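TL;DR need structure tokens for one chain.
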Amino acid sequence: MKKLAIGIFVAAFAAIGIAGPAMAAPAESDVTGVVTENQVAVAGATVTVLCNGHTEVDMTDNFGSYLVHFVSADCPFGSTVKVTAVKNGKSGVSSGTVQGVTTKLNLAIVNVSIPEYGFIGTLIAGGAGIGLIAYMRRRQQGQFGL
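>> reply
TL;DR here they are.
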């Protein structure tokens, strides 16, 4: 009777061992981090993670944390990961390399839409260009006595 119980016990473990690998979930690569603005956690930001042509999306929790899962075949060790976070017209980007099972990439979001600086820069560049042309013409006229 004892031998029968041991035999059943061994057979059960053997069956689990044989079926176990076939039923196991594929290995994963996790990308996680915290999104901040002015060093304060940002809740509700949309986070997009791109790895090896595959994209996963998450939303930050109340602590600014996000977590996405990739099948290891889609995001293997050594791959470059790009993380983008967006909320209320503010965004941030970070990138890094997959370090193993879990890769941590924190990032900050900022207000990237500043159109008035583009207009001011255009005015300054245009004024400097016109001023340089005027200066060069005066200099040429002075050299030739015109």
